[in-house]
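Q: Hi! First time asking for a complex rather than a single chain. Here are the components, and I think there are two in total. Is that enough to go on?
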Amino acid sequence: QVHLVESGGGVAQPGRSLRLSCAGSGFIFSIYGMHWVRQAPGKGLEWVAIISFDGSEKYYADSVKGRFIISRDNSKNTLYLQMNRLRAEDTAVYYCAKDLVRMGTVDYWGQGTLVTVSS
Amino acid sequence: DIQMTQSPSSLSASVGDSVTITCRASQGISNSLAWFQQKPGKAPKSLIYSASSLQSGVPSRFSGSGSGTDFSLTISGLQPEDFATYYCQQYNIYPFTFGPGTKVDIK
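A: Yes, that's all I need. Here is the structure of the assembled complex.
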């Protein structure tokens, strides 16, 4: 069965960087688009970014564009989110998610990793 | 960006009731609309895609409809495990956007 495991969360100071990873298993990682979605404490879901199966296409939410970079290593079945110039408002649980087919909606979610941005 | 609204923001219902949640997009999104369920402290679960298609393993008491700007999610015969928060999401135009959520709790 599909399994997605995020890691790399923790506490970071404003202005610093953090890289999240998401290991996928139970499916052919290299043929699916992948997403990052986040949820601030007590708030709703916010879509963050998407990457195509081969990494050639990437799109971002306005709130993270220019600061976050989504990438993938298909040889390692791993998705990444490089988060730079972190802000307090980036504090959230970050979920990685598998696309249903190509670059549309999500069918499977990871369990999430918490990122806290605080001085 | 496309704005998604949901109504109601919360509702109370009993086991066995049928409930309908509506979702509206600020511009037409064809049928590129998904619904998700989330329970407290848990990751979201995907329920419906393409406005009306059930994800694998989702019970048939869940159904979706709509196209363009107006969509709905209906749960026919609420079960105890259905009490949760439900989100719609458009995936027609980047950036993808979620609705604010509808919390369904026990009356």
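A: Chain A touches chain B at residues 37, 44-47, 50, 59-62, 95, 100, 104-112 (CB under 8 Å). Let me know if you'd like any chain examined more closely.
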